[in-house]
Amino acid sequence: MERLRDALTGGEAGVALFVDGPNVLRDEFDVDLDDVLHAAREEGRLVVSRLYLDEHATPGLIQAGEARGYDVRVTSGDVDVKLAVDATELVLSEHVDLLAIASRDTDFKPVLEKAGENGVGTLAIAPGEHGRSDALRNAADDALVLEEPGGE
């Protein structure tokens, strides 16, 4: 089975990216959605790229996410809960090699832990050094911080 999967994927890890829009796409971080995609693609073949937004998201933001290839999910409820449930469900029901979560919210620590318990690698993507969560960084197998404008 693994050889078949490697043949289908070119041997690259299958990466599932989940982006917590309200906590990442803030003026103080100035995050570019393309940079988040690039960070996940550096880890392997992107099989899922979801951007979660709340009901206050502008049509322009929704359109920008879709134009970059994200599966945009807009929820009237708590974005964190929807993202956490969806990410956990995906890890438990489908084969992915790496779960990448872009957020600064410690609510996703249990999701990263559950993925790890099920043999899925984990990556915490922070929207900038001052948006980094030590709890997420410590729960994940690996972590990275998106470079802030003017940063080196």
From TrEMBL:
This is NYN domain-containing protein. It comes from the Archaea. The lineage of its organism: Archaea, Methanobacteriati, Methanobacteriota, Stenosarchaea group, Halobacteria. InterPro entries: NYN, Peripla_BP_I. One of its GO terms (molecular function) is RNA nuclease activity. It holds the Pfam family NYN. PANTHER family: HTH OST-TYPE DOMAIN-CONTAINING PROTEIN, SLR1870 PROTEIN. Residues 15-146 form the NYN domain.
